Amino acid sequence: MLVLQAAGTPPRRKKKPAIGIAIAGGGPIGGMYELGALRALDEAIAGLDMTALDVYVGVSSGAFIAASLANGLDTTEMCRIFLTGDSHMARFRPDVFIQPAFLEYLRRAAHVPRMLFDWFTAIARHPLDIRISDALLHLGSLLPTGLFDNDAVEAFLRGVFERPGHSNDFRTLKRKLYVIAVELDSGRRVRFGASGYDDVPISRAIEASAALPGLYPPVRIKDRYYVDGALQRTLHASVALDEGADLVIGLNPLVPFDAQGAYLHGKQAPESLIEGGLPAVLSQTFRTLLRSRMQASLSKYAQQYPAADLVLFEPDPGNAELFFTNVFSYANRVHIAELAYHATLADLHAQRAQLAPVLERHGLALREAVIADRRRRLVDGLEEHASVTTASTARLRHALDELGELVRRRTPRDGRPARRPRRRAP
Hints:
Layout: E1 2-5, E2 19-23, H1 27-44, E3 45-46, E4 55-59, H2 61-70, H3 75-84, H4 102-109, H5 112-125, H6 132-140, H7 151-161, E5 176-183, E6 189-192, H8 202-209, E7 219-221, E8 224-228, H9 237-242, E9 247-251, H10 259-264, H11 277-304, E10 309-313, H12 320-323, H13 333-350, H14 352-360, E11 365-366, H15 368-371, H16 391-410
Parallel strand pairs: 2-4, 2-9, 4-5, 9-10
Antiparallel strand pairs: 1-10, 3-11, 5-6, 5-8, 7-8
């Protein structure tokens, strides 16, 4: 589903329009959906270099994708890492996301003797004042703050970003990158990568942004605790707009399920989500809250940034297959990415008439042959241009990038090379 919010007062076409991307969270499977959508955009839009945008904004699982793009990892390499396993850069193990948080369990268990002592002391002193609700409240403090260990996730990210030619430091990136998290004890949004928060390692910031309460423990950074950035807003596209982006591409993989829409498209769906029990009800509730905040934000963007264009990509609400997929299941990750790939190409084709003039303002164009080809597959071409990335080639690529940047800075705006001043005859 493509939501196009064109600028109310389109400015004159700039020589170099600023383009940003904002990627929401959605768990591991949501990240795979976003990767499939990005792969489609990469192939379908001429002039769009996903690794050379002006600003990147990521939340939760979307933060890793945004950080990877800002680090020069293109969609081809990310598909090899997470989907096909053919990457020579990193070996991804799906179980890294579901390792039990044993240290957190032990921390909580260590408080049991003290709590029991205080409880029995209170009963002995005031036996008639003890209430069941108070007892349950005390027992609640013994529950772990997260089921899974997010330190393993951070270690994997650190290994990727600290390879030669990449960076785990916000301050050394060539592109602006912001990873959004929420400070637990104040509920305040924090933009890692902004001034005052740019000395935090990128991998650590992503770990904090993806710490969904109940699943992962809050992450401690500089004596403060941080949790999932989606708790405050869904997309945080305003961060890119505040940086002066003329066009923002948004990705949100979580939308509420619409059973009626599924029936209209001839797809099977349960008569009611109540049949799925508590997980289905909680999932629908969470998705509805996210969608509601998204719609409220879009209306504000139109008023606050009337000269900017926003293109948002989301799944079809009637897609029962995506809704009922376990967010931690990687067994069908290629299938989910393929769904996103085809859905995105179909959306681009269906709204090409409205989208083409908006893209043209920013020096971009749709590739008609790509968006009209229904036989295309995401995995096509991943091996076609495969190349082995070694430490030596990574360093060489990094040096060439720096040389190109130096040449660009020393070249006048008219595009002609600067002339050396003639030496005077002695």
